[in-house]
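Hi there, hope your week has been kind to you so far. It would help a lot if you went through both lines with me. No rush at all, and the record is pasted right below:

***
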Amino acid sequence: MTMINSKSNFQKLPAIATNLIDNNPIYQEHLNKKEMVEVINRTFDPSSVPDVNDIPEEELTKRVKSILSLHLVSGMLNDFTPEQMQLFDEAVKRG
């Protein structure tokens, strides 16, 4: 009889987040791994995303990476001076 790892995608989320952070020096430098795993777990809470187990692992990885990137960028914006933030806002408005 073949044993198949039947972990749900919800159970795999912390491993996906940890793997992405561990393999990206920029994430390692700017993100707190424990906090990000908690954010990912809250974001994909079964009450919020009841069909998380229907999402392929590749798609979950893509979504987790997007969330990590969003937190990375938002954290960097906190370090901007008011002048830098104004330049950034103008650049975003121009598209």
Notes: Confidence is low (pLDDT under 50) at residues 1-6. The CA atoms of residues 16 and 61 lie 6 Å apart. The two ends are 57 Å apart (CA to CA).
